[in-house]
Amino acid sequence: MANIQQIAKRAGVSVATVSRVLNNSNSVSSKTRSKVEEAIQELKYAPSMLGRNLRNSESRLLLVLLPSISNPFYSEIINGIQNTAIANDYHILLCETDSKPERENIYFNMVKNKLADGVISMDPTINMKKLNELYEEHPIILCSEYEEGGCIPYVTVDSELAAYQAVKHLIKLGNERIALITSDEKFLYARQRRAGYERALEEFGLPVRENLIYHTKGLDFQNGVHAMRVLLQEDNKPTAVFAVSDTLAIGALKVINMESTTPIAVVGFDNISFSSMTNPTLTTVSQPMYNMGCHAVEMLISSIKGVKVENIVLEHELIIRESTMI
Amino acid sequence: MANIQQIAKRAGVSVATVSRVLNNSNSVSSKTRSKVEEAIQELKYAPSMLGRNLRNSESRLLLVLLPSISNPFYSEIINGIQNTAIANDYHILLCETDSKPERENIYFNMVKNKLADGVISMDPTINMKKLNELYEEHPIILCSEYEEGGCIPYVTVDSELAAYQAVKHLIKLGNERIALITSDEKFLYARQRRAGYERALEEFGLPVRENLIYHTKGLDFQNGVHAMRVLLQEDNKPTAVFAVSDTLAIGALKVINMESTTPIAVVGFDNISFSSMTNPTLTTVSQPMYNMGCHAVEMLISSIKGVKVENIVLEHELIIRESTMI
DNA sequence: AATCTAATTGTAATCGATTACATTTATGTA
DNA sequence: TACATAAATGTAATCGATTACAATTAGATT
């Protein structure tokens, strides 16, 4: 594979001139420019990013951290990230942590080793202490999950408000015993969504019953199945369920379909693509995932350029489908 | 951020020695080694991949091409790819083509520009002519979809046999009118799965009815919905359906649930995680996706090292669930 | 034609590592 | 102690681009 020297030689110019053509600097006469372009064609030359990156001390790669790629919630965000990155001549390194700390180290090192110019973290399980440490030296943006009062910039939605609206919707439909399927409250979003749930109940004078609040060990379908089974054991069964994620809600839906004698309304959170394919289709809170990804990249690129960025809170929307039309 | 020179100075040695410590070459005395390690600690040094990569003319990045990240079929493959890559000190660049040719060019250029050392393509819609051209200069492995009689090495499953077994299972259950929901036959897997479908029918003396074969425009849930609606218009409705992907099958399932007066058995293909969450759960062909990913990376790394690799055909398995237990 | 300015092109340093080869130091042997 | 050999370390070239600065050329002005 040819390098810039060979192009220079072939075109009878210096490497500087070739470089100028490559970066279309304006101070090249059209005559020499075409000589160089011809040489590039003839030798099928493609400039090496390795040389360029070293010289510019940048990799033009962005690290994207997420707990698991199979969680469909992230798919749309990644789409937004990918498109925005490419539009800005960046590429992304998608990294699953699987919530394993040893993975984290590998990924953090990629940044320290200059393999990536910055990080977008979407992983709620990430080690915030280490991330903050990394932030002292490298640009980072948090996407979706963030640290309250922390200093790393974030883009997110108002989870508390969204949960409040979702539960209010269930109450307006006449439900008084509304269960909450949520995850570990070490996660900010879980605390916020629970707060919204409670605010709605309180506003309508309904009691917050601890036995209607189930904490799952994870966000998988199976966790939703298990949660719903437990909730159906209650003497006074719930008439509706709000789950903090669609995958949990879909698990609950399955159990309701199979095992419940009475209909139970369900609301999820995220509006993953499968939520419109379930039976019944799922009422859920839609986050502007694609946009969230776009904003995250724009913020990160700004940070890389040294521009200070502001946090962004995007709008959500309650999508009403069959699961609350019983 | 410190560089190797500063470490050398601090430790009172030459850069060569520092480099030897970094790459734990054995010809360093333990005394100097600890001096160097101390300096590394003190200055919080992390070697730059930019310098190393240029010198070694490698990026240790692998390009992974897939049509769409939201298709859950790829999630597990990517898991396998990711883990195997990391185990070999590589990282992956996940790239969605969205089946857009202009994207292809961007990605192919990443390889030509040495940003990636090789390619794993899982995209059935990829431009094979260009890919073969790229293959002349760079290592490539095809994963899942491949080119019959082509020269690019691949890892895949026996689609024809799997389809044959799936349809045979439906026949054994007593079904005689079995529909096929398949995609465009420009894809090899579609041709192979149709061939398996026909072989099973013929073996049991059943006619291949063109009006029971529906070709979809894509692989989404909605395509399955539409296909099933059309099939239900037939005077002689099918009693069973074989779909060439789970997402299509899940779409069909939805329509059957809502609109069919008689039960219809359904078999899918891929065993995506959602196939065990549907209602009823879906009988499907399980491909060893994780393993496929692992093999693809191993083959690619071998190719990068200049070792010639053999094609691999992995075992599949028919997973019987509720959708064929009616 | 002589001079000045602007446009174009070239030279060489630089980014941060690795490594072949040269040199120094340590170790063993007679 | 002197010498041979092995181990440890250092010197400097190299990978392939970019770019500040210098040098050249072209064009304008008188």
Furnish the topology, listing elements before pairings:
2 copies of one chain form a homodimer.
Chain A: H1 4-11, H2 15-22, H3 30-42, H4 49-56, E1 61-66, H5 73-87, E2 91-96, H6 101-112, E3 118-121, H7 128-135, E4 140-143, E5 154-157, H8 159-172, E6 178-182, H9 188-203, E7 213-215, H10 221-233, E8 240-243, H11 246-259, E9 265-270, E10 283-286, H12 289-304, E11 312-314, E12 317-319
Parallel strand pairs in A: 1-2, 1-3, 3-4, 4-5, 5-11, 6-7, 6-8, 8-9, 9-10
Antiparallel strand pairs in A: 10-12
Chain A binds a DNA duplex (30 and 30 nucleotides) through helix 2 and helix 4.
Question: How would you explain this protein's 3D organization?
Answer:
The structure is a homodimer of 326-residue chains. Chain A is of the alpha/beta class and 326 residues long. Chain A has three domains: 4-47, lambda repressor-like DNA-binding domains (434 Repressor (Amino-terminal Domain), Orthogonal Bundle); 59-157 and 289-315, 3-Layer(aba) Sandwich (Rossmann fold); 159-288 and 319-324, Rossmann fold (3-Layer(aba) Sandwich). Chain A is 44% helix and 16% strand. The first copy, chain A, has twelve helices and twelve strands. In chain A, helix 9 links the parallel strand 6 and strand 7 (213-215). The longest helix of chain A is centred in the middle third of the chain and has 16 residues, at 188-203. The mean pLDDT of chain A is 95. The structure holds a DNA duplex (30 and 30 nucleotides).
